Amino acid sequence: MRLLPASPEIGPNTGFDPKIDIFERKVFGIGLGNLLSNVEDPLVLVLDSQWGSGKTTFTKMWAGYLREQRFPVIYFDAFANDFMSDAFTAIAGEVLSIANETLGKDKASYQKYLENAIGAGKVLLRSDIKIGAKAATLGALSDKDLGELQAITEDVANEAADITDAYLKEHLEKHTEQKLSIENFRTSLSSLAKGMGAQIDPQEEGSKKASKPLIFIIDELDRCKPTFALSLLESIKHFFAVQGVHFVLVTHLKQLENCVRYSYGPEIDASTYLQKFYNISVSFPYIDENRSDVKKYLSHLEKNIPATGNSAQLKSALIHKIGIIAERNALSLRTVERVISCVSLMLAYTGERNLRLQPLIAGLCVLKVCKPELYEKAAKGRLRYKDIQLFLGLEELAKYDGKNKVPIQERDAHWWVYCLEPDFENYNVDWTDYTRPLYQYSVERERLVPFTASSIIDRFTFGQ
């Protein structure tokens, strides 16, 4: 059994397969490809959107489309690689890998790039190993013998001073040599990129070569460690922004700003700081009134969640209700997926004999993912109708179902009033339809919400 449909299998050359491109973002991808193809200068482009909006699926399809168009493409998952300590090596190694696939190790441009990457790496990776080892040793010592500890401390300090002077002298003397090493690396990278991008146009019968830029896509930048994220940005700016190479940073700028504040303090103007690392920012397509990605995604999820009989009807009703709440609150696709995970688990865990009240289950599944503090109040029997009225939109959704004698959302609101309001009987409502389904269950009205949370929903939790 699957709780949700498996992540789509997107091969290196899949492109915008209609079965996967359920949000029809191919046109957007073509436009981005045209932009990168027509810009001559090195470009760093940010594809900006909040976490969970579908950027990764789009980006992988887009990478396949670019390969179909004969662009050399690197897709790099920053989050999956943030265990690496050196961003320069990570990026340089990815370039080396695609160069080997495209040109082969025997090509002069490949060997030249490898040689210069090693040279630039030496400049960047020089460190005072002796001081580091001394400091590490000192940190591991016991303080029982204070005399010995003091002696070692003084020894480290003296050696550090000597080594620092020697290092600075060497650094000044070799400054020109180091600059040349880095410049040689940049030159060899540009040459390598142009060699990879040179493609024979079949329409010209091999008589004409068209060079396309190397497209380096860095995904999940906002999810990796702040130090690694900023190190990647610094490396791109100083070493890899060369003719024939474009970078696309797939991230959420607001979250990336938090990485800057984490590293440099809350007083820094994080937005201005980041602007020095990219040329333009492109907003990922948002949901609008005429084209609802949430509805499309929910339809996709519903088809892939197993359920039969009454459970199938319950599933459809819950997804409909959750869709209304999701659209109202502009929930991301990833958030919607996590909410539906709660529904899927509930359907798998419970049976038709369980007390499964649609309004409560739908609302609580959303609260569990989006408003955990309210969910906790619900589970403890402390939730009140006014706490969730605005978020769940219990009085503003009549337009979604006008065929029923009593609008469905009004019935939903009545269920919440019945469960949460001490003075529910003062409402002008015939409560017979709400009490009748409860006759066979030994659950008091005030316990319906905590019972649904603890016995129907709150058996499982989710990670990221």
**Based on CA inertia axes, which overall geometry fits?**
elongated
Instruction: Report the CATH architecture of the largest domain.
Output: 3-Layer(aba) Sandwich
Mean model confidence by pLDDT: 81
Distance between the termini: 20 Å
Count every helix, treating DSSP H or I runs of 4 or more residues as helices. 19
Please trace the helix and strand order, writing H or E for each element.
HEHEHHHHHEEEHEHHEHHHHHHHHH
Give a short synopsis of this structure.
The chain has 464 residues and is of the alpha/beta class. The chain is 56% helix and 7% strand.
Overview of the molecule:
It is a single chain. The protein is an alpha/beta fold and 464 residues long. It has two domains: 26-126 and 176-283, Rossmann fold (3-Layer(aba) Sandwich), CATH 3.40.50; 293-457, no CATH class. Helices cover 56% and strands 7% of the residues. The chain is built from 19 helices and seven strands. The protein has helices spanning 26-38, 55-68, 87-102, 108-125, 129-140, 146-173, 175-197, 226-240, 253-264, 270-275, 293-303, 309-329, 333-349, 358-370, 372-379, 385-392, 408-420, 432-435, 448-457; strands at residues 43-48, 73-77, 198-200, 209-211, 214-219, 245-251, 280-283. The strands form two sheets. The protein has a five-stranded parallel β-sheet, sandwiched between helices. The protein is elongated. Residues 127-146, 200-208 and 397-407 have low confidence and may be disordered.
Which labels suit this protein?
Rossmann fold, about 475 residues, 19 helices, elongated, 2 domains, 7 strands, five-stranded parallel sheet, alpha/beta
